[in-house]
Write a structure and sequence with these properties.
Length: 582
């Protein structure tokens, strides 16, 4: 058997014979032992070792060995995918690569997308999806489940039951290659682990008895898993993940998100919330709740190789006093847009669809970020790495520190996410920080907004043919977010970036409408005092026309509040309070 492996099979990575590890040789010495009736002594095989131990290649070797040496005529082997692989097992791909690299096999096998067929002995090795129906009626000499910790659904459990070694074959096996799973979640593997390790120990980490042969080790088995590699893995992985994947230990799916000491190292006592910087590009995360959880709005910015907390605000609703999204979330976002150069605002559309629609009409760069498993994993992992690497700078805030202490990481086969241990805990500020930080790291701006668009327009301006002489240069006020275009008298003008400012080049008549009309913005006039002074007044009939221009942010708020029945005095007080916050 070992002679067959070393003389016939070839390692696809090197093209040379496989060099079996001591742990693999010890397992092989028992795996295919037969009794006096030529039946398998250990039909249930489990080989479990830390990640990067060569388990997938070893499973491929065992599958080829069982099929070609013990299967006889019409042998059949099945490689089943787990819930995460969807359709094709990695073991099948490894078998295919070994066959193609082995000169004595490659010309004797017919390979399709999901099957290897050896005409000489009518033997086949098939890949099937994680579906019990696909395995019904099979008669395999060996069936393989790779990374069985991922078999968590009822469908995968039924599949595994279908792959029981058939009694019609004298020798048949069911093989598992994996590392540890989650206690209480990877139930199928947990049962196999407990049953296997309850048998007598016959070698280092090798258990045998009651038809089971189980190798389960917490130690590195390959020479490339040296101290340097272990140190690298320990520094780059969460403690729970390191224990499960590298030390091959069972872990709970819940653990603290970060150690508070890690968070405290990110706190800069000299930092304070920023009041206003219209040239500072910021990214905002919003985690909203109508009645129960708090609502958090967080703004961050890139600061060299770090992400810096700019400001944050938390609103606390109650079941009998739900949050008014317009007065709180919408007003705060508008306020932030007037104080900073907002690049993107990430939000979960579940609660904020109507708010987002209104703000998008105003040109606010709203960016949907649904709380899917993939999105939660991405944002949670990114925030963890920022905190761990001390690449996050935050100002002191005891409430935020409490929220960090109450956040836990829930790990599942499909990833992990930030959550809370108790319903009363408030971690919304952590979720919002995770969304905003990921946007800042990826620098994904909305079209027409952001620093990338600024420089694109600056480059476009530098290479554009000079404008005709009668065009007027109008500068947009620095304390207001510039729109992507301006429409006056039915003519649209694209904003351009010049010397750190956003500008529009408009005709003289349109400049007069913007700066000399009865509805001209005071801020726009103030930003273009010299230009306005050189323009003639509008004729009486033209002055009666209202130029088409976006209203200022304050004007927009006044219009919305007036439509809702609020008095002008109360609206002005609300605006004044929002500007004086912190």
């Amino acid at each position: 058997m070992i002679a067959f492996i070393t003389s016939v099979l070839r390692d696809p990575a090197t093209g040379r014979p496989f060099e079996l590890l001591p742990a693999e040789i010890s397992f092989l010495e028992h795996a295919f032992n037969l009794d006096e009736t030529s039946r398998a002594i250990y039909p249930e095989l489990t080989y479990s070792a830390p990640k990067k131990s060569g388990k997938t290649a070893f499973a491929a070797i065992l599958t080829l060995t069982a099929t070609l040496l013990y299967g006889g005529k019409n042998a059949e082997a099945i490689c089943c995918a787990n819930d995460l692989e969807q359709s094709q097992s990695r073991v099948f791909s490894a078998i295919e690569a070994i066959v193609k690299a082995s000169p004595r096999l490659k010309d004797r096998a017919k390979i399709t997308k999901s099957e290897l067929f050896f005409p000489d002995v009518s033997a086949s090795i098939k890949a099937i999806a994680s579906d019990a129906a696909g395995a019904a009626g099979a008669n395999p000499v060996i069936s393989v489940g790779d990374e069985l910790w991922g078999f968590t659904t009822e469908s995968s459990r039924r599949l595994w039951d279908e792959l029981v070694p058939p009694p019609t074959r004298r020798a048949a096996w069911r093989l598992v290659t994996t590392y540890a799973g989650y206690s209480g979640e990877s139930l199928l593997l947990e049962e196999l682990y407990k049953a296997g390790t309850a048998q007598p120990l016959i070698g280092p980490d090798l258990y045998a008895g009651e038809g089971r042969l189980t190798f389960w080790t917490h130690k590195p088995v390959a020479p490339w898993q040296d101290d340097r590699w272990l140190a690298q893995m320990r520094s780059s992985m969460r403690p729970n993940a390191f224990a499960r994947i590298i030390e091959n230990r069972w872990v709970a799916s819940e653990s603290a998100f970060v150690d508070l000491a890690m968070w405290d190292r990110c706190v800069d006592p000299g930092l304070r919330p920023l009041q206003s910087d219209c040239g500072l590009p910021v990214f905002i995360g919003v985690d909203a709740s109508l009645k129960r959880d708090s609502t958090a709005i967080i703004a961050v910015t890139g600061d060299g190789d770090r992400v810096r907390l700019v400001s944050h605000k938390v609103f606390q609703p109650s079941p009998d006093r739900p949050l008014d999204f317009e007065e709180t979330i919408e007003a705060e976002i508008v306020n932030l847009c007037s104080r900073f150069d907002v690049q993107a605002i990430r939000y979960d559309p579940w609660q904020m669809a109507s708010v987002a629609q209104r703000l998008i009409k105003r040109g606010v760069p709203m960016q949907e970020y649904p709380q899917t498993s993939g999105n939660l994993t991405d944002s949670s992992s990114n925030l963890y790495e920022l905190i761990k690497g001390e690449n996050l700078a935050v100002y002191p805030d005891e409430a935020m520190r409490t929220s960090i202490s109450q956040a836990i990481a829930i790990e599942t086969p499909r990833g992990w996410r930030i959550a809370k241990e108790k319903q009363k805990h408030k971690i919304d500020v952590v979720v919002a920080l995770a969304m905003a930080s990921l946007a800042a790291v990826k620098q994904e701006m909305m079209p027409g907004f952001g620093v990338f668009e600024f420089y694109r327009r600056a480059s476009e301006t530098a290479t554009t043919v000079p404008l005709v002489a009668d065009m007027i240069r109008v500068v947009w006020p620095q304390d207001q977010a510039a729109p992507s275009h301006l429409e006056v008298g039915g003519t649209p003008y694209l904003v351009k970036a010049e010397s750190g400012a956003f500008v529009f080049y408009v005709t003289k008549d349109h400049a007069r409408q913007l700066l000399k009309g009865p509805f001209s913005s005071a801020a726009l006039i103030a930003a273009n005092t010299d230009v306005a002074a050189g323009l003639e007044p509008l004729p009486r009939e033209t002055a009666m026309l209202q130029p088409m221009r976006p209203p200022s942010i304050d004007e927009y708020v006044m219009q919305v509040q007036a439509a809702r029945g609020y008095e002008t005095r109360k609206t002005l007080e609300m605006l004044q309070r929002s500007r004086s916050w912190r």
